[in-house]
Amino acid sequence: MRKFILLLLFLLVTTNISFAAQVPAELKNYVETSFPKTDFRFDGVIILPDSTLYLPLFPAKPINVEKIEIKSTVPANKKLSDKPDIVIFNNDYVLLKVINDKNGKKTVLAPTNIPDEVRNGLLPQDMLVPSGLIIPETLKGIIGNLDITLAENPNLRIEVPQNKVNKSTNITTPIPQLKNKTFYIATGYSKNIQVVNSENKTPAYALSQNHVPNCMKEYNNKFLLVTSFGSNSLDVISLADEKTIKEIMFTTKPDEILIDNEKNIAYVSSPEDSSIYIVNLETMTLSKQIKINGMCERLTLSDDGTKLFYVDKKTNEIWAIELDNNYLLKDIGKFPNVSKIAFNNNKLYITSRTKNHLAIIDYETNGLIAEIGITTKPIDMLAYENNLFILGAADNVIQVVDTKTDEITDSIYLNTNGFSTNLNLIDNTNFAIVSDSRASIYCILDMTKKQIIKTNPIEVPIRTIVVTDKVNKIK
Q1: pTM for the whole structure
Q2: Is a pLDDT exceeding 70 seen at residue 1?
Q3: Is residue 19 over pLDDT 70?
């Protein structure tokens, strides 16, 4: 019976059924006129740029109006830019501002004379209730089926032991492109995600997790998507309030995550059931299951988002999924111990961890263009413009391949005496972080100059790192 219920729930999410209440577009536009860059979170919560929270109340019967206008406010005669406690619109939608009472508890204002639009409104029924929120007794009708007590989700933030050292020794000097950035780091052995300011080498604090994180990706500088070893869920962490605001459940363990920011979707692999799932990042729901051949790993997305590549870990067969061609599967061929796949200039580049070679395949003909010897233990690879950067773990070297001529043009030595693990592109720059799982350092690679321009200390080993702008926290 339990398996049947799980299957039924899974079918609901994979058929793209969503119970999320969406704030009307015209109301969003009205709010953004006063507050550009407002975050309309997928569960209904509205977060202004200064972290002020508004909870929307949905009317039982919205009124169709030609133009959205404010009908009334509490206090009276206020503009939206004044951030009043209650805003009632002419289509009967209402915004309630989350405030702190005299005891410091989160609540909303309950006026002496409650307007009908407030009394008859309803909170989004899949809303993640702000932690500690108390709804006044006179407004209990707006709750509906929400269980405020059960819905409360504790903050993930925990303190980490700090070494008793001079604060000046904790300071590092990042490159300008990393100033005011935050590093979210999974070490590979700790359950907690370490949070490090880019100007420091020790974690400021950590985000508590129930399992050891496997893969992490950020979306829109607002959310952290995390899969973990031993967990059947993809967790969505809100960086503004540092809470897990959604657990997207799978029937088997999700593994790797790739994000297509242009389409606002994520691809999540599930090797156990031979599937790759598409997650709608605007609603944080599963929207499609792509059935594939074999057990997928080493996911790679082409720059234009039209092709997805993976390796079958059982057979070493490489497959392409043509996303814009009804998800057609194309067999690329079998290659030994594939460590990474890259796609550039309509060619597929494949590294072998044990053979120490790079195979180059013409995608259209599936023919072998060349096979060249490369550094030992190639562990990661990153395509940037017309260059391919190959990280060799054994020699701590990055080799550069010109994808026009398919020749090795440069060798960049790290000289770290560590064990380099990943090349992590810093979004919207020509730089990449070279992470190390052994040495307490990370390197900055300038992919235009083809050189290491900075090596900084960091007090935690890096298995996975995510770089974001510093996020305004919800207080």
Answers
A1: 0.81
A2: no
A3: no
Q: Tokens 């380099």 correspond to what residue?
A: 420
Burial zone of 10 (CB within 10 Å; 0-12 exposed, 13-18 middle, 19+ buried): middle
Q: Look up residue 106 and give its amino acid.
A: K
What was the pLDDT predicted at 3? 44
d(CA 141, CA 220): 34
The structure tokens listed for 292 are 């594939």
Contact 334, 361 (CB under 8 A): no
> First and final CA of the chain: distance in angstroms?
43
Distance CA 175, CA 432 (A): 11
Is residue 336 a contact partner of residue 319, using CB atoms and an 8 Å limit? Answer: no
Name the phi and psi angles at 244, rounded to 5.
-80, 110
CATH architecture observed for domain 157-209+266-469: 7 Propeller (2.130)
Identify the band that residue 231 occupies on the pLDDT scale cut at 50, 70 and 90. Answer: very high
| Alpha carbon distance 51, 28 (integer Å) | 16
Please spell the DSSP secondary structure of 85-130, one letter per residue.
SEEEETTS-EEEE-EE-TTS-EE----SS--HHHHT-B--TT--PP
Q: Where are the domains of the chain?
A: 19-151, 157-209+266-469
Contacts of residue 437, defined as CB under 8 A and 6 or more positions apart, other chains included, come to: 188, 418, 419, 421, 461, 462, 463
Question: Does residue 293 contact residue 312 with C-beta atoms inside 8 Å?
Answer: yes
